[in-house]
Design goal:
The complex is a heterodimer of chains A (475) and B (134).
Chain A: E1 5-8, E2 11-14, E3 26-29, H1 32-38, H2 43-50, E4 60-70, E5 72-80, E6 86-87, E7 99-108, H3 109-112, H4 115-126, H5 141-150, H6 163-167, H7 185-192, E8 204-213, H8 216-222, E9 228-235, H9 238-255, E10 271-272, H10 276-311, H11 313-317, E11 320-326, E12 328-335, E13 338-345, E14 348-349, E15 368-371, E16 379-384, H12 386-391, E17 395-396, H13 406-412, H14 415-424, E18 428-430, H15 434-439, H16 448-457, E19 461-474
Parallel strand pairs in A: 3-4, 18-19
Antiparallel strand pairs in A: 1-2, 2-3, 4-5, 5-13, 6-10, 7-9, 7-11, 8-9, 8-19, 12-13, 14-17, 15-16, 16-19
Helix pairs in contact in A: 4-10, 5-10, 7-9, 9-10
Chain B: E1 2-6, E2 10-17, H1 20-37, E3 46-55, H2 59-77, E4 79-89, E5 93-102, E6 111-112, E7 118-122, E8 125-133
Antiparallel strand pairs in B: 1-2, 2-8, 3-5, 4-5, 6-8, 7-8
Helix pairs in contact in B: 1-2
The chains are: A alpha+beta (475), B alpha+beta (134).
Chain lengths: 475, 134
């Protein structure tokens, strides 16, 4: 692996001459300290591999939360353009449209008071978190097809979500071109009982308090005030998305020689955007993305039902959705007058003020972006800035980024001990697995404040508010 | 014999065995143990068995397919694999009967990747590596 060259204060680049198979530079946003951590794993080598993809334009890019993945690094971004451009399921990842949704409650942390424990408990009961937990909403056949095609809008007639929630969702929760026929029966089986479930791993529901407002105008546009209670939902397309990715990595891997594509890593399996494999994947991926937005809508419905139970109708009815953003997705977008397929794997769209795809009431301040910290540390609300369009295809970071493996984290702290530590800091924890809890310990992740500072200095996004956890539900 | 190598976003399974068939049996045992470690101990589960068939153009891909079939059964049938009662290998296919229990295993493994996927014979030993997305 080559050593990155500093381009400016927070931008580094490995030139395409570093390897004979690189077509574009590998570009990274980081400060010196984060770069030192990034050098510890193989993420830069993986970024160089991404730079070999046919039809990639500008650069293979990485955000400061980059860490080693499989094929693509997590925290990576690649834009490909016709006629040679490819789409790569690995560039989206197995958890298609993993993303975050922020709800803002009509009460302060003081007003929630001691009922916080009951609220966290009720959320954990109604929104199944953890492996193998089944959803109350089990959809099959044409009913599942509607969700795959229409996303959360298909759930409105069931009383799940509101029109306002839908308009405050990236792409209004529906990617064009979704093709249920391109989703395998096996993917449908895996997803049919999982709508409204959080899942395991790093997925969670967090109850938070707005600790600090940094940009008052943007915070006002997003409906955020100091000390207000928020709920952050982090989940994705569950088994349905995992199977869609599995199916298309296999299919594209088998078709590589037919398309005369050579790759340094089989997990980068890809196909031209205008090939049968490429078109079918984009249709299936869009369907899985729509399923994920519906999943987060169903989880938000459970949060509102919990609020109704614990705090009454007014609290539930006046809970608003700030926004919902994807951080694992491929989208056809126009940048600099050219249509490109932007792969975001552990990276978030961050369009600046004035962009027509931003909800009307946010358009003057820029698209809302949510950056979860590690469990027990702050999360940030950001707003997209013009630099994202100029430098990163309208993209910013997605989280803190893992620093150590799950086993390393487990060796350092027992789940029960971590649970006690979090409770001592005023964070109510509901997690059925002590192992799962310790694997997500705060020290297993990079410092989210340093990650956010880099994207702000790079001009990709700017801080709006800081959120402090007061309760967490984990799988 | 198998072992796990832990990375930031994945688990890598490494296997050494005396025969091709034993590699597949070890992979099943490793997955079963991983799931058991993370399962709810209160759920003992009834004995259950399934037929598994997979095909692939080479042995390494067949190993990934085998594990993918088991992951699918874990998620849709609540299956915790214990052993292969029968395992027949053809040139590009695998036909097996697997047994275990129906319990409440975690959906710990999202997928079986092709990243650094390998299976080859070195001397008298078969060595394999497969990376799981967890």
């Amino acid at each position: 692996m080559s050593e990155p060259v500093r381009i400016d204060e927070v931008t580094w680049e490995i030139p395409p001459t570093a390897r004979p198979d690189m077509r574009v530079p590998a570009r990274l946003f980081a400060d010196d300290e984060l770069l030192d951590a990034i050098r510890e794993d193989r993420s830069l080598e993986q970024l160089e591999n991404v730079a070999t993809l046919p039809g990639i334009v500008e650069a293979a890019m990485a955000m400061p939360d980059i860490h080693q993945g499989y094929g693509f690094p997590v925290g990576g971004l690649a834009a490909t353009a016709p006629p040679d451009g490819v789409v790569s399921p690995g560039g989206v990842g197995y958890d298609i449209n993993c993303g975050v949704r922020l709800l803002v409650l009509p009460l302060t942390a003081a007003e929630l008071g001691k009922r916080k424990e009951s609220l966290v408990h009720e959320i954990s009961r109604r929104a199944p978190a953890g492996a193998g937990k089944e959803a109350a909403l089990r959809l099959k056949g044409a009913k599942l097809d509607r969700v795959l095609t229409e996303g959360p809008r298909a759930l409105l007639e069931r009383g799940i979500g509101t029109e306002d929630d839908v308009t405050h969702t990236e792409s209004e929760g529906r990617l064009d071109g979704a093709d249920p026929d391109a989703v395998s029966e096996r993917a449908r089986e895996r997803g049919s009982g999982q709508l409204g479930t959080v899942g395991s791993g790093n997925h969670f529901i967090e109850v938070q308090r707005v600790e600090r407002v940094i940009d008052a105008d943007a915070a006002a546009a997003y409906g955020l005030e100091r000390d207000q209670v928020t709920v952050l939902i982090h989940s994705g397309s569950r088994g349905l998305g995992h199977q869609v990715c599995t199916d298309y990595v296999k299919r594209m891997d088998a078709a590589l020689s037919r398309h005369a594509i050579e790759l340094p890593d089989r997990q980068l399996a890809c196909a031209p955007l205008d090939s049968d494999e490429g078109r079918d994947y984009l249709g299936a991926m869009a369907a899985a993305a729509n399923f994920a937005w519906a999943n987060r809508a169903a989880i938000a419905h459970s949060v509102r039902a919990s609020l109704r139970q614990v705090m009454g109708d007014e609290a539930a009815d006046e809970t608003q959705q700030v926004y919902d953003v994807a951080h694992n997705v491929a989208k056809l977008e126009t940048h600099n007058g050219r249509e490109v397929c932007v792969h975001r794997k552990g990276a978030t769209r961050a369009f600046p003020a004035g962009h027509p795809e931003i909800p009307a009431d946010h358009r003057e301040v820029g698209q809302a972006v949510f950056i979860p910290g590690s469990m027990g540390t702050s999360s940030f609300v950001l707003a997209g800035r013009p630099g994202s369009m100029e430098r990163s295809f309208g993209t910013t970071c997605h989280g803190a980024g893992r620093l150590m493996s799950r086993t390393q984290a487990r060796k350092r702290i027992q789940g029960a001990e971590l649970r006690r530590e979090l409770e001592a800091r005023g964070i109510t924890v509901r997690c059925p697995s002590n192992k799962g809890l310790s694997e997500e310990a705060p020290f297993a992740y990079k410092d989210v404040e340093k990650v956010v500072a880099v994207v702000e200095r790079a001009g990709l996004a700017a801080r709006v508010a800081q959120l402090r956890p007061i309760g967490v539900v984990k799988g | 014999m198998y072992g796990w190598v832990d990375h930031t976003a994945e688990l890598e399974l490494r296997i050494e065995a005396a025969s091709e068939g034993a590699v597949f049996e070890e992979a099943l045992a490793a997955l079963g143990e991983l799931l058991s470690e993370h399962s709810d101990p209160d759920v003992s589960g009834e004995p259950v068995s399934f037929a598994v068939w997979a095909s692939a153009p080479d042995r390494a891909t067949l190993l990934a397919e085998w594990l993918s079939e088991l992951v699918y059964l874990v998620e849709t049938e609540r299956f915790v694999p214990r052993r292969a009662e029968r395992l027949d290998l053809g040139e590009d296919w695998l036909d097996a009967e697997v047994s275990g229990s129906r319990a409440a295993p975690p959906h710990l493994v999202k997928a079986v990747t092709y990243h650094r996927l390998a299976m080859k014979q070195q001397g008298g030993t078969w060595r394999a590596a497969v990376v799981l997305d967890v």
